[in-house]
Here is the input.
Amino acid sequence: STIVLLFEAPRDFTFNLKAGQKIHFGEPLGTI
Amino acid sequence: FNAKSLGLQARIRPLPLFIITGGGYVGYDQYGRYRDRELERRGIEVPPRIANEAQVALYKSIPTRLLSRAWGRLNQVDLPTWLRKPIFSLYIWTFGVNMKEAAVEDLHHYRNLGEFFRRKLKPQVRPVCDSHCVTSPADGKILHFGRVRNCEVEQVKGVTYSLETFLGPHTWTDSVPINRNDEDKSSFQDMLVSKPGNELFHCVVYLAPGDYHCFHSPTDWRVAHRRHFPGSLMSVNPGVARWIKELFCHNERVVLSGEWKHGFFSLTAVGATNVGSIRIYFDKELRTNSPRYSKGSYNDFSYVSNNNQEGIFMRKGEHLGEFNLG
Here is the structure.
């Protein structure tokens, strides 16, 4: 199964992720 | 027909013919993938091999919903106590489940695989990050993320799907004129972005079979609307996501939309073959993976009602829903 987040945010929102990395619920996705 | 040609017909058995043609097709496909790997090894960017319409239609013709419901029924059958440990240990070993994080580690506690699949975690094993405004809603693997451009969202690098097909028409808030004429695609994306200077972002989290399958609120937001799209239950593992364009638009899914402090926010739970059912804890009306549905349909439900003008307020990290077998 999959969860897709779609959201608006200020232009300077940046993800601190790498495609393919493992992640746990509660860990940060990105910063503004 | 003379005897010889009849004899020839009798000798051509369908099974060997099927095996030869199928084997030839698989061999040709594997050679193509080998060649792509060689090119990538030399640093040459190779476009992903997308399934053609016939292949997608063939895949969609597999009765995945029926299989999924049967799988779910099977996993609701309570196991005798002596059988629980071996069955669940096999599942744990196969999918790399970390039982130390489970709220209940004793395998005899779970009456069937469905219950085991819905296991909760010990609260302390997943601290919710306070210093960031958006956190992961679930355990899993980051398939893809980034900015949405021209109304196309990437499910994996290089394979996209249409934002409007995925979310459905923007009618969940009555602030938008419904009788839109055929404007260019970007206006759909523009309608979602409510504040000047903002952009639309997306992130795709893939939950593997051994992962914890509940999901939580990724931020503080107000959920105003639910749109349920009945659909196929094709596998959504990364290999299939690289192969079938618009995969997430084919599959059964539940779109929750609303607002957070920066404007539009949505979380979509997409079902898959063995995980056909989606539960949203505060939505008792939702029924997914039902036997009958009409293709391309969806049903809407608003959480904003006369006596609840706000919708459902969710705090970051709060329990939101779960995927179930079947």
About this structure: Residues 175-182 of chain B have pLDDT under 50 and may be disordered. The two ends of chain B are 52 Å apart (CA to CA). Chain B touches chain A through 68 residues (CB under 8 Å).
